Amino acid sequence: MKKKINTAIIGYGMAGSVFHCPIISSLDGFEIAKIYTNNPQSINAIHRLYPNTKPVSDVNEILSDVTIELVVIASPNTFHYSLAKEALLAGKNIVIDKPFTVHSEEAEELIHLAQKQNRVMSIFQNRRWDSDFKTVKKVIDSGMLGHLVECEIHMDRYRNYIKDRAWREDDIPGSGVLFDLGSHLIDQSLNLFGVPKAITADLRMQRQVAKTTDHFEMILHYDKLKVSLKSGMLVRAELPHFILLGENGSFVKYGVDVQEEDLKSGLTPLTKHNWGQEPESLYGTINTTINGLDIKGMVKSENGDYRGYYTNIYHSILHHEALIVTPQQAKNTIRLIEYAMESNEKKCTLKVTL
Known about the structure:
Helix 4 packs parallel to helix 5 (104-117), helix 5 packs antiparallel against helix 10 (327-346) and helix 7 (177-193) crosses helix 10 (327-346). The protein has 2 domains: 5-124, NAD(P)-binding Rossmann-like Domain (Rossmann fold); 127-307 and 336-351, Dihydrodipicolinate Reductase, domain 2. It contains 10 helices and 15 strands. By secondary structure, it is α/β, with parallel strands linked by helices.
């Protein structure tokens, strides 16, 4: 029988209920023993969906439980650092929902503590397992576009109002679209292209009711490559998600990975056939020239699968497999967020040193 990692999740908001619980419970190698929440509706949902899981109202019921090997922190961003520190000191392996921390100094401290405690620590950057990102990475690696000169990544929403009781839209540290969606786009660009030479950023509150950043545009400067990352809450028309421009051609991808909407609707990898498979209508288009041959058409999307993240966590804890999403990578994402805020404040381009 495959060994199961006894797991506890702190938080049952969107991150915990939509992403972590359904994905973890779809893998044979994990057992969700406890979930921390004080919300009566969440407690009822846990009883219904995970009858073998115990809801707890005190985090210490998780941290003091010697049978718990992995703690997943799916709390609001402001609590990531303190909860991660407590969990590491309690001897737990931890997964922290993105972003890692609110400040890079906190991230650095946690990295050292995880090393001292000899525990696995990773940050949930699930968008590396999106179908569109996997497809874009494959197109770039194929060299079909020739030398890449520009990449543009969008992750937009349309909501011209503020959600009730939505901490991500309050004026608190770690809130706003830069920390939320920006941490995904920055992580993807770092994964594709490495650390940029410089950064230019523009942060705004576009909605009249906005309390925190709800729009950002940043340019990551490389030697011969420009990467633009953009996200806003007032984008009603569909814009391309990815645009790649190379010396020989271009690739354009509309639409977003289907996993999030499936998870929100209650589907899981165990209940939906062909999990993470995009419909043909979402395939990207390529227009390029290879060896004098003009090529124009669709590129079938790679299958997305968030289970890949937790499969790596499983093997890292039990078999010392190298982490795919490392704490240092996640810290670099926080540093670029800090650079973006400084660039916006000073209205200038900043050299990046990580």
